[in-house]
Amino acid sequence: MSRIDEAIEALRSGGFVVLEDHPERENEADVLLAGEQATGESVNWLAMHARGLITVAVAPEILKRLDIPLLPQRYAVDNAPRFTEPVDAVEGTTTGASAFDRAITLRKLADPESRPEDFSRPGHVFPLQCMPGCLLDRRGHTEGAITLARLAGLRPVVAIAELMNEEGRMARGEEVTQFARVHGLPLISVQKLVDRTT
After folding, report:
1. How far is CA 179 from the centre of its chain?
2. Cis peptide before 72 (omega within 30 of 0)
3. Which end of the chain is more exposed for a tag (fewer CB within 10 A), N or C?
């Protein structure tokens, strides 16, 4: 594992961080990118290399300010993520689907000056609401991403891409370690963040 400080510096500089959760929970990994640092190139990199669904962890107070409500949960499983209404930035985008359009939306979500009317709904960016107590309430990737952003002094808006292997299954264990090694990315765990902050 890389030190938390390395992950903080990577996120702060617009780079990627690999975040693993506990083997007895989902036993999966996500690749993180700070929302305020997102570019079309970096979102495209996530789509090409992480391969999984790209969402964005957002702190509750930002979602409230932007009037982005939670979607109702139906037949939810344990540890289900808290999806909200999907959005697109109104200005600067076309359909909202391209990596470059999604980067604009990510940056707009992180913009402290943004307003509810700056987003059309439904859109192509899927916010996930962090639990109010963050890692004290839930030890998931969403809460880990927000915790890392706050440690880095960034806005609590973090793009998350689920890491899949070349066969389309979720990457686990040595596959995650190898991915981080090949791409030169810091690899940390949710538990390390818990240990650092609680």
Report:
1. 18
2. no
3. C
